[in-house]
Specification:
Elements lengths: L11 E12 L2 E13 L4 E5 L6 H8 L7 E6 L2 E2 L5 H10 L1 E5 L10 H11 L4 H14 L15 H13 L5 E5 L7 H18 L2 E6 L2 H4 L4 E6 L2 E7 H19 L1
Parallel strand pairs: 3-8, 3-9, 6-7, 7-8
Antiparallel strand pairs: 1-2, 1-4, 4-5, 9-10
Helix pairs in contact: 3-4, 3-5, 4-5, 5-6
């Protein structure tokens, strides 16, 4: 497998990516020639309504699914050329995942949940535990390391999920609707935490959301509709454009 870190190249480089699903001879196209380059250290929000293709795009970027056509280089590695075992290594070492549903293991302690990616990677339990505690300290939860997920609030569980995503020091964090199950104030706290992590550590963050107030924390916005990119640029003007479009639609419907 090619080296995971390649200087001078974007962290994510996808070109003319298409994705279709097949049921027998029936083809259902979902992505129609997506181009996206993401430099290291970027904080990017991908927005789109249900059925827009944003979740399919996230699955391809996270090496959870493969494109039907087109190219995808992640850290200079041609993802489509990798075996299943190599893709698993990429997911474990190069990408941290944060999901809407937290995906914590209920029977394990907070620290054990955070350490799990390192255990899977063959790191000794002692070293994995120490690194897990260090990541929990970064998200302000070290004192809760021995609790189980059921003893935490939703916001605390999402912070644990963020610590777990960061424990292997990946260059890329993919967050899929990370505030979807949280109240407004907790959502603000989580997004500020992600913003601070991006600024302080330089980790690249790609966030999928349908909420403009969540996307506003990113520096860059990509809007997807019907499997195509409608906008790719600075977040603030992109969100203003979206709000104006919605206002026009409401006026036209009234």
């Amino acid at each position: 497998m090619a080296p995971l870190l390649v200087g001078g190249q974007p962290l994510i480089d996808i070109r003319a990516v298409r994705k279709s699903y097949f049921s027998g001879s029936v083809e259902t196209p979902v992505l129609h020639g997506i181009d996206l380059q993401v430099p290291r250290g970027d904080f990017l929000a991908v927005m789109g309504q249900s059925g827009s293709g944003k979740s399919t795009l996230m699955n391809i970027l996270g090496c959870l699914d493969l494109a039907t056509d087109g190219s995808y280089l992640l850290n200079g590695v041609d993802v489509r050329s990798l075996s299943r075992a190599e893709l698993a290594v990429i997911r474990n070492r190069t990408i941290g995942f944060v999901f809407q549903s937290f995906n914590l293991i209920k029977r394990m302690s907070v620290a054990e949940n955070v350490a799990l990616p390192l255990i899977y990677a063959g790191v000794s339990r002692g070293k994995a535990q120490a690194k897990a505690l260090a990541e929990l300290e970064k998200v302000g939860l070290k004192e809760l390391a021995k609790r189980t997920p059921s003893q935490l609030s939703g916001g605390q569980q999402q912070r644990v999920a963020i610590a777990r995503a960061l424990v292997a020091d990946p260059p890329l964090l993919l967050a899929d609707e990370p505030t979807g199950n949280l109240d407004t104030q907790t959502s603000v706290d989580i997004m500020r935490s992600l913003q601070r992590l991006n600024e302080e550590t330089g980790i690249t963050i790609l966030l999928v959301t349908h909420e403009p107030d969540v996307a506003a924390y990113a520096r860059r916005l990509v809007r997807v509709s019907d499997g195509r990119v409608l906008y790719d640029g600075p977040a603030a003007p992109g969100l203003e454009q979206l709000a104006a479009s919605h206002a026009q639609q409401m006026l036209a419907a009234s």
